Task: inverse folding
């Protein structure tokens, strides 16, 4: 059975542009995969704690040496990793905040980047362990930045680091430049969703 993991990071939750586009894609995916499973994770509604020293040490402490508090931290991270590792398709709604991804999404990444679990170091460099997945990323921006931007590069680099190299970006840009530009961008993004689905 096919499985899709939908990760939303807009502070506006379901009302955000990226959330709406991702939701439309998921609806189309469900029509084409009627027996498929969809897992939703809204990082604005249910934020993940920022990585601090105690959490990092919980990840790196051998399981048999963890305290109960450390084990609870590791268990939460393991749950997030199980969600993404069991998914065939990853759909991310990613608005641009101050030229970057939302901090809630970065924190999510901090909890799934675990050495020996989602990636490993080799003599030839790091090797991602989350393979055979497709990621579709919906990005909303107030201005025009295109694909050659640090935000896109970071997402591509991080996903590749954990083994997800089949990545498709759908941009909706110019949202702050006027109603006509916004309408045009939304229409183009919706057309791309139909093509992808």
Result:
């Amino acid at each position: 059975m096919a499985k899709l993991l939908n990760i939303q990071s807009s502070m506006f939750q379901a009302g955000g542009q990226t959330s709406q586009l991702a939701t439309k894609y998921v609806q189309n995916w469900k029509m084409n995969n009627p027996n498929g499973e969809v897992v939703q994770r809204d990082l604005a509604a249910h934020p993940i704690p920022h990585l601090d020293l105690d959490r990092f040490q919980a990840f790196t402490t051998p399981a048999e040496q963890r305290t109960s508090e450390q084990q609870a931290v590791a268990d939460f991270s393991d749950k997030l990793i199980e969600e993404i590792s069991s998914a065939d398709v990853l759909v991310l709604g990613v608005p641009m905040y101050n030229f970057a991804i939302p901090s809630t999404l970065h924190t999510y990444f901090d909890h799934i980047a675990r050495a020996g679990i989602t990636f490993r170091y080799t003599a030839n460099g790091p090797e991602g362990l989350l393979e055979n997945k497709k990621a579709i990323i919906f990005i909303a921006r107030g201005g025009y930045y295109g694909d050659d931007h640090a935000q896109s590069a970071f997402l591509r680099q991080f996903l590749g680091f954990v083994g997800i190299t089949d990545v498709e970006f759908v941009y909706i840009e110019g949202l702050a430049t006027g109603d006509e530009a916004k309408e045009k961008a939304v229409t183009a993004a919706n057309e791309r969703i139909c093509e992808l689905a």
